[in-house]
Design a protein that fits this description.
It contains four helices and no strands. Helix 1 packs antiparallel against helix 2 (40-53), helix 1 (10-34) runs parallel beside helix 3 and helix 3 (56-76) packs antiparallel against helix 4. The protein has helices at 10-34, 40-53, 56-76, 85-111.
């Protein structure tokens, strides 16, 4: 497999990553305030923008941030679930968001050809 240089500069990717980190942090705080109201549509939108405007690897980093934000929001909101279900929910979030990230990345690749 031949190495291809990314068409995005490091400064551009870093700027988008900082914006996404800030957005996920705000969404996590809103998720904490709203309690059991699901904000998955907003998280998926954020992930879609991150993957579309950068690369899939930045999208995967965004997934890790989203999982951390959602799990912390559930934990500190004292959602009444068993302690073992936090891990199950995190795995569930990871799989769903990974599928979204890969689909958006592949869609972008197909449309750019």
């Amino acid at each position: 497999m031949q190495y291809t240089k990314s068409k995005y500069s490091v400064a551009y990717v870093l700027k988008i990553f900082v914006i996404i980190t800030f957005s996920v942090s705000v969404l996590g705080y809103i998720d904490y305030l709203t309690g059991e109201l699901s904000l998955d549509v907003l998280y998926i939108t954020c992930l879609g923008f991150a993957t579309w405007y950068t690369t899939r690897s930045i999208g995967i980093l965004c997934i890790l941030e989203i999982i951390l934000a959602k799990t912390l929001a559930d934990y500190y909101d004292h959602v009444k679930i068993g302690t073992h279900l936090y891990e199950w929910n995190a795995l569930d979030y990871a799989l769903v968001y990974l599928v979204v990230c890969l689909l958006v990345g592949n869609l972008k690749k197909v449309l750019s050809q």
